[in-house]
Amino acid sequence: FLMKRKTHVKINRKEVMLAKLRKSCSCTPKKLKNFVMDFLPVLRWLPKYHCKEYIWGDVMSGLVIGIILVPQAIAYSLLAGLKPIYSLYTSFFANIIYFLMGTSRHVSVGIFSLISLMVGQVVDRELLLAGFDLNDDVPPALADSSLQNDSQTNTTAFNLTIAGMNAECGKECYAIGIATALTFVAGVYQVLMGIFRLGFVSMYLSESVLDGFATGASLTILTAQVKYLIGIKIPRSQGHGMLVITWINIFRNISQANLCDVITSAICIAVLVTAKELGDRYKHKLKFPLPTELVVIVVATLVSHYGKLNEVYASSVSGAIPTGFIPPKVPHFNLMLRVAVDALPLAIVSFVFTVSLSEMCAKKYAYTIRANQEMFAVGFCNIIPSFFHSFATSAALAKTLVKTSTGCQTQVSGVISAMVVLLVLLFLAPLFYSLQKCVLACIIIVSLRGALRKFRDVPARYHVNKVDTLVWVITMSASALISTEIGLLVGIVFSMLCIIVRTQRPRTALLGQIQDTSFYEDDLEYENLSSVPKVKIFRFEAPLYYANRNYFLKSLYRLTDLDPNLEAARRKKYEKKEKQRLKKGDHTTANGLGIGETTLQLVPKQIDFQALVVDCSSISFLDTTGVNTLKEILKDYKDLNISVLLACCNPSVIDSLKRGGYFGKDFANMQEMLFYSIHNAVQFAKDQK
């Protein structure tokens, strides 16, 4: 039987588009209000804020995140190749803007190690191209957009004409100029992606790609911090293969290690790791995480200051961190052109991490987020702070988990965290002058525990899915051994190739009947299946399109043990020989059979079926090549008096077959060619003479 299809009313797409355009272009007070409320979600939820219920959890989590944020911000400035003050600016502005524009209640947006690394790589490259020395770690005194000549602090001003900057600008000024230009362009990309609703781009970053990218980048981050751990001066490697080159330089200069930095690093790592492990073990008993990083930084700063570690042992320190805010400045347009390509992967990675964490929190706490608004929020978290000497931001997993575990209810906690950072910016920043860089490196390395632990998950990942494990390994290796941006691109391309290969060479099977039922399964996978006499049932577990057409035919011919083209050629050859014998007057064949009996011998004995049922339940779509392929096997098998029956086709496949003329004119033979279950097709084949 054939089920009657519903008749769908044809939609005039032009009219629909014009109606949507008119609706979107119209401006009414109500619509304007909704636009503002959607653009600034804080206006919706803040008036409904339950102060008594929420305030304690928000204040507590905000203070804890702020206390964690300050040492991390100072530490991650090493990754970005910038001064600590800029990391504090970034953390402050990102929390305020996300409070206004974000739709997630729990995500912690701010400085993030992977984003800092990507910014730092671009900054280092552009500094080298501008002729600056990357290996001078002595901190210059901070001024505004230009720096004065100072031989002791190596702030010799360069009259830069590069990238159109005709102003005197020192190394630090040029570095933050590159970072802000990169951040601005990344933010513009994210806003444009939000306007054009290109959030689907994140779908191409699978979990395996993201995990591999994070792990590979973590290895790069760890490698970049080793020189601070042991206090050696080595060239800062740039370009492809940075990880290998850096380790070679480390081992070449290991004899120059600063004993004071080595001892300090060993003590700090031991304390941090022990505290983290104890915190993980007793996290259910602790109301909030131990502020270990802050304690380590305070103690290390006091020891360094009163022990004069910089003067006596030449231990590298953070240097002067000024208080207050630098006047805002528009990012240089010409610098934007230099970093436009680098900003694209930065924008995508920043958005993907933010949205994935937002969705995770929303699912856990039963509320919804708007992915498109998240794109705008992250975009403006980059665009606006770039005018205030800040660099790119993203949601951070570790801080988000801490935020949720300490009772966070809304983004009011982000404002509290911003106030803690502001307190440091206005009053406490100079107190970190004597803080050793090796302590900051220890904080960064210990924060990578989660990403580096992914190596322990490889056996379990391999057991679950070998292809995903291969994608993880390829992405991780490329991110670590080539570069982070190339690694991300390699991971995306390789994962897509894996999908294509899977559809090019999918599983195929001949099905047998489950005894005393109307169900059929793979004969090689299950026992006690009975074959159907005179019927072959073939399953193809993928869409049928141009790339897997040949594999479909080869698999069909191999499993049915019959190539209709070869068989047809064999028959023609046999008939030709018989005609030649008839002309010679010989009325018997080589088998001793009469001419009337020869037709019974044309089909070899291995052809033991008279009907072929194609199970189309796994064929999600057909292209033109796929339709032509089915038409081809229909014709070829028909020449051998074998009928081809299709079963379990979905509506889109049926429509493709109709449009391709598979069922003939007016679909007259459709009832004899198409069936809604395999069993119906088998019963029909058995009833055929």
Automatic annotation (TrEMBL):
One of its GO terms (cellular component) is apical plasma membrane. It is a multi-pass membrane protein. Residues 525-685 form the STAS domain. The chain crosses the membrane at residues 54-76, 96-119, 173-192, 212-230, 335-355, 376-398, 410-428, 472-501. It holds the Pfam family STAS. It comes from the Eukaryota. It catalyses: oxalate(out) + 2 chloride(in) = oxalate(in) + 2 chloride(out); sulfate(out) + 2 chloride(in) = sulfate(in) + 2 chloride(out); bromide(in) + chloride(out) = bromide(out) + chloride(in); nitrate(in) + chloride(out) = nitrate(out) + chloride(in). GO terms for molecular function: secondary active sulfate transmembrane transporter activity. InterPro entries: S04_transporter_CS (IPR018045), SLC26A/SulP_dom (IPR011547), SLC26A/SulP_fam (IPR001902), STAS_dom (IPR002645), STAS_dom_sf (IPR036513). Keywords: Cell membrane, Glycoprotein, Membrane, Phosphoprotein, Transmembrane, Transmembrane helix, Transport. Belongs to the SLC26A/SulP transporter (TC 2.A.53) family. NCBIfam families: sulP. PANTHER family: SULFATE TRANSPORTER. This is Sulfate transporter. The lineage of its organism: Eukaryota, Metazoa, Chordata, Craniata, Vertebrata. The gene is Slc26a1.
